Amino acid sequence: MIALSTGSLYNYGIARVAHLAAAAGFDGLELMVDNQWDTRDPAYLNEVASEAAIPILSVHAPFRPGILGWAEDEVGRLHRTVELARAVGARTVVVHPPLRYRWVTLRYPPFINIAVLTPIPAKSRYHRWLATELDAYKTRAGLTIAVENMPRHRLGPRLVNLFDMNEIRDLRHFSEITLDTAHVGTWGVDLLETYEVLADRVAHVHLSNYDGRQHRLPQDGSLALGPFLAALRRRRFEGVITIELEPDSVGAGDDGRVRERLASTVAFCREHFG
Q: At a CB cut-off of 8 Å and minimum separation 6, what does 169 contact?
């Protein structure tokens, strides 16, 4: 099934995204939970999905604290996301691995603010929970909970991995992962070879291209996404393939352009995946 991440148009309302996705021919939505009430009100979300005639297939846990009414820690946010997924009928929850660093702002009154990257203590509670409790929790929850591979980030001249449990050898410890193709692109490794290493654990896919910028249209960039989709088909992949883009790549602000690009993206996926 081919879904559109609502995060692809995070500067639009959920209802608008749902109708655009349905018109373009997507099979469903992946809901990106953020600090907007519309992304975490199950009654409203079910109403939108019904009106647009498009189901919510997966839910992406919020990756920042500060969500009003939700826990500040990652484990608490994951539990709340699972509750939301059940309430809207989604069968998959996407989560990020633990951060290794966080940005801290140093303030020097009256006018100087400096952001610095500081390490998080090794093996945080979230790290330990993922390593020792996730599998048992998934069994009780009855949902797929797929940990996403994350990108490398450029900090000046250096490429830095900001996440723990994010190397390929670490991802192999999870029974279910979300393979994000654009994130693979930031590591400078071969996408098809990476997929072959992780294929038996790939339960969910975030599909987009990479041209030095992340989350480009599948048709635009350096990644061989056609052959990748064909490889998914050969292995009889049964999970959801979510298109996850940046608003500028899909043409946000011009609904005619958005419709055209979303429709061509669905056509690309149908051509190569079936």
A: none
* Nearest-angstrom CA–CA distance, 218 and 220: 6
Q: How far apart are CA 86 and CA 75, in angstroms?
A: 17
Q: Which residue, among 39, 38, 37, has the nearest Cα to 61 in the 3D structure?
A: 39
On whether the pTM is more than 0.90, the answer is: yes
Residue ranges per domain, the chain? 2-273
The alpha carbon of residue 118 and the mean position of all alpha carbons in its chain are separated, in whole angstroms, by 25
CB-based contacts of 124: which residues, under 8 Å, 6+ apart? 98, 164
**130 backbone dihedrals φ, ψ, rounded to 5°:** -60, -40
Give the model's pLDDT for residue 153. Answer: 82
pLDDT digits (tens, 9 = 90+) for 125-161: 899 999 999 999 999 999 999 999 999 887 777 778 8
The alpha helices in the chain, defined as continuous H runs, are 14-24, 42-52, 74-88, 125-132, 134-141, 168-171, 181-186, 191-198, 225-234, 247-250, 255-273
Q: Is 217 exposed, middle or buried (0-12, 13-18, 19+ CB in 10 A)?
A: buried
**Class of residue 169 by CB neighbours under 10 A (exposed 0-12, middle 13-18, buried 19+):** exposed
φ, ψ dihedrals at 151, nearest 5°: -80, 165
User: Using the 8-state DSSP alphabet, how is residue 33 labeled?
Assistant: -
* C-alpha torsion 223→227→228→234, nearest 10: 180
Question: Right CATH number for 2-273 from 3.40.50.280, 3.90.550.10, 2.60.40.1080, 3.20.20.150?
Answer: 3.20.20.150
Q: CB atoms < 10 A from the CB of 204, how many? A: 28
